[in-house]
Write a structure and sequence with these properties.
This protein is an alpha+beta fold. Helices cover about 40% and strands about 40% of the residues. A hairpin with a 2-residue loop joins strand 2 and strand 3. The longest helix is centred in the first third of the chain and has 41 residues.
């Protein structure tokens, strides 16, 4: 019986490497898409940019400023969200987030950077997605990628819906 289990495990081992290679190929592909889109949007005249800025007070934290930039492309006369860049503070802590979408509005990549509470160190986290599934993540030790990355996947869907509502509102007032 042990020999059969060992034999099956040996047969399945190359399969797991193939899937890992496919995932890492996809991660590299997403990194290229990210670099191209970021370069494109940084070097355009901001025709395809919606910026929302908000200032408000958070009790026990003070003045908070949030700046959200929605970068989009026009595909078949419809705005399609491509990237979101969001920066905000809570008290003295600074936060930065980026969401990268594919041409169908599905999240490909999420990045966040934030200040640690107890030190001057900055932490970065990345999550990569395909078909709304996490395919790779780079997170701090002790963080569960399933709950962390899934939470931001849900947040990205909300952001996309908010963007579409804003664009529909703009269309109605034109």
């Amino acid at each position: 019986m042990k020999n059969i289990i060992s034999f099956i495990a040996i047969l399945l081992l190359p399969t797991s490497f193939i899937f890992a290679d496919e995932k890492m190929d996809r991660v590299l592909e997403i990194d290229k898409i990210y670099a191209n889109d970021k370069h494109y949007f940084e070097n355009t005249n901001n025709r395809n940019l919606v910026t929302i800025s908000a200032d408000y007070l958070i009790p026990d934290s003070g003045q908070t400023q949030r700046l959200t930039r929605y970068y989009f492309e026009i595909i078949n006369s419809m705005p399609k969200l491509k990237m979101i860049k969001e920066s905000f503070n809570i008290g003295k802590r600074n936060f930065y987030r980026e969401y990268l979408y594919d041409k169908n509005g599905e999240l490909l990549f999420f990045y966040t950077q934030f200040d640690q509470r107890s030190s001057s160190l900055t932490t970065e986290h990345n999550c990569y997605y395909q078909n709304r599934q996490i395919i790779h993540s780079k997170l701090s030790k002790g963080i569960n990628p399933d709950s962390y990355c899934t939470g931001y996947l849900q947040e990205s869907i909300k952001q996309n819906v908010l963007f579409q509502k804003y664009m529909n509102f703009q269309k109605r007032i034109e």
